[in-house]
Specification:
With about 240 residues, the chain is mainly α. The protein has 9 helices and no strands. The longest helix has about 35 residues.
């Protein structure tokens, strides 16, 4: 398999299992725990596990299902519109929208534009918020979107800085499409050690208590971690 195809596979993995989602998801669970006065960590309140694990399982299946369906149709529609007409060098979303107008009509142009705006509104709080949660967790800052600004200044400062840096990139000569692509590749590379750590932690009784993962989940988790690692190693070998 050519090197650029393997790199693309790593990029797809990086957008599916992104490191920032680990921070966002875990922080969200902690926020939900603090918001419910009757909730306790499952390690110390195993009777609450059934309802919570069912909620998490349903949320995961629905979220991953919809996200992968959407990703598939993004790839499919790009292939049958832009790529089919020989348009392979798109540097901005505005160019992609403009290229779609004569190919797919006015409605597709406006749908694409609305999708880009909606994606930005969805991604912005997640990306900026996960960066803030990661920094706050590392340095033990107060962190929660429920807190007022004076109480969590450092936490909100990271969010503001992230947004400003992202906005500033729009005024640089960087190709945003390539930047998104390589950031996905970096996510795929970074995901491997994070997945290894999560698998090791999930199997430890001193961390998980009675909720250590089952043999089946352990096997499935290590298989997926191995696939990610193999893809990353193959990418570096072909790039070198």
């Amino acid at each position: 398999m050519p090197g650029h195809l393997i790199t693309t596979v790593v990029a797809v993995f990086g957008t599916t299992i992104s490191p920032y989602l680990f921070f966002w998801q875990t922080s969200q669970e902690v926020e939900d725990l603090h918001a419910d006065v009757q909730a306790e960590p499952l390690k110390y309140a195993p009777e609450q596990a059934s309802a919570n694990l069912h909620r998490i399982k349903l949320d995961t299946f629905l979220g991953m299902g919809f996200s992968n369906i959407i990703a598939y149709f993004i790839i499919l529609t790009t292939a049958v519109t832009l790529n089919l007409h020989g348009i392979t060098n798109i540097q901005t979303s505005a160019q992609a929208a403009s290229a779609l107008r004569p190919i797919a009509g006015e409605l597709a142009f406006w749908l694409f534009s609305a999708g880009i705006i909606g994606t930005g509104l969805l991604a912005l709080p997640v990306l900026a918020g996960s960066a803030a949660y990661a920094m706050a967790g590392t340095f033990k800052w107060k962190n929660s979107l429920e807190l007022k600004l004076p109480v969590a200044k450092k936490f909100y400062s990271i969010i503001a800085i992230s947004v400003l840096l992202g906005t500033a990139l729009c005024f640089t000569p960087l190709d945003p499409i390539k930047s998104l692509y390589w950031s996905a590749v970096i996510n795929g590379v970074i995901s491997v050690p994070i997945m290894v750590l999560m698998m090791l932690m999930a199997a430890r009784t001193d961390i998980m208590g009675r909720f250590v993962i089952s043999r089946g989940l352990k096997l499935a988790g290590w298989m997926r971690t191995g696939v990610m690692a193999i893809a990353v190693v193959a990418m570096f070998l072909t790039l070198g």
